[in-house]
Write a structure and sequence with these properties.
The protein is mainly β. It is built from two helices and 27 strands. It is globular, with a radius of gyration of 20 Å.
């Protein structure tokens, strides 16, 4: 944990090793929750819960296969995590016990998100499928296929829960309006010990996709991640698997690219002295700075140094260096507001 601001000052507040130095264990992803603490998914398919202030380790939740995504629900002390084995688990962190039997998707799940009222779950899976689950009934309400390759990232819009965004290896970012979808059709009940409830009418599915698709943005490269920032979360950033950064104005369903950094690491190197080795992620830094510097980019080195840079088109401006906390690749960053 680092205490920092965008003036360049920083301090290492806490650190914790999740395994023995020679164990080969590493952290895949972090999920913060103000009331319940911090969750970390590890390379051994465990999810460990930590106290956010002290980093004291709590219970470890286990899964038999490698984890792909992890997040807390918005309204309750529940954690959800997905896996390469098509399973989605939901646990109550207060009791360290599952809320229900695992949900089973049709394909390998790469990304998931929960609506603000905790009633819907979306999953992005292999072969470009996006599924909308009704968490009250624990059933898939809608399935559509906006992509021709793996859906690597899905997200509800922060202020409009009826808009579903998905990014894919096919280079597209698609927006679906769930209010335009037809009334969900009944699904057959599975006798499996895992919940797996889907509709199979391909014709109806294609009709739904045509009705629901409001915008398709061509990022021109395989999409690794994206996120929202700016006033009303109307701007979107995307980072490709080639580690290029693009900014988009999504207001009024325009999808206009407002900036493109095809050589983001090299651009950062001009201010740092040498290019970082990789990009980590971005986050909305509007509480740090107003105006054009509302997006902050994290990048890192092979020896664990992390840089925070203001994204101020057409420039990337390094602001903060976080050193001393890590000695290897940093795969994820979580910011406590």
């Amino acid at each position: 944990l680092h205490d920092t601001n965008m003036s360049g000052e920083y301090a290492l507040a806490h650190s914790l090793r999740v395994g023995a130095p020679d164990s080969g264990l590493y952290v895949l992803q972090l999920a913060p929750n103000i009331s319940t603490g911090l969750a970390a998914s590890l390379s051994n398919a465990h999810v460990v819960l930590y106290d956010a202030a002290t980093l004291t380790a709590g219970p470890a939740l286990q899964h038999p296969s490698a984890l792909s995504d992890i997040l807390f629900s918005k309204q309750s002390a529940h954690i959800l995590f997905s896996s390469c084995d098509t399973m989605i688990n939901m646990w109550d962190v207060r009791t360290s016990s599952p809320l229900c039997r695992p949900l089973r998707d049709r394909q390998e799940v790469f990304s998931l998100d929960v609506s603000g009222d905790d009633t819907r779950l979306i999953t992005g899976t292999a072969e470009g499928m996006v599924n909308v689950w009704d968490l009250r009934a624990m059933k898939v309400a809608q399935t559509f296929q906006p992509h021709t390759d793996d859906a690597t990232k899905v997200s509800f819009h922060p202020t409009n829960p009826n808009l579903v965004f998905s990014g894919s290896v096919d280079g597209l970012i698609c927006v679906q309006d769930l209010t335009a979808l037809s009334v969900p059709r009944p699904s057959s009940t599975s006798s499996s010990k895992h919940a797996s409830l889907f509709t199979d009418d391909v014709g109806d599915q294609e009709d739904d996709e045509d009705l629901a698709t409001t915008l398709v943005v061509n990022a021109e490269e395989s999409v690794a991640q994206f996120g929202f920032y700016g006033p009303g979360s109307t701007w979107l950033y995307s980072i490709s698997h080639m580690e290029n950064l693009s900014l988009w104005d999504m207001a009024n369903d325009q999808g206009h690219r407002i900036a493109n950094y095809p050589n983001a690491r090299e651009s950062l190197g001009a201010g740092i002295g040498s290019p970082p080795d990789y990009l980590i992620s971005c986050f909305d830094g509007s509480y740090w700075a107003q105006g054009p510097e509302q997006l902050v980019l994290f990048s890192g080195t092979q020896t664990g140094t992390v840089y925070l840079s203001a994204v101020s088109p057409p420039s990337l401006i390094p602001r903060v260096m976080l050193a001393g906390g890590h000695s290897d690749i940093v795969r994820c960053v979580s910011v406590e507001r």
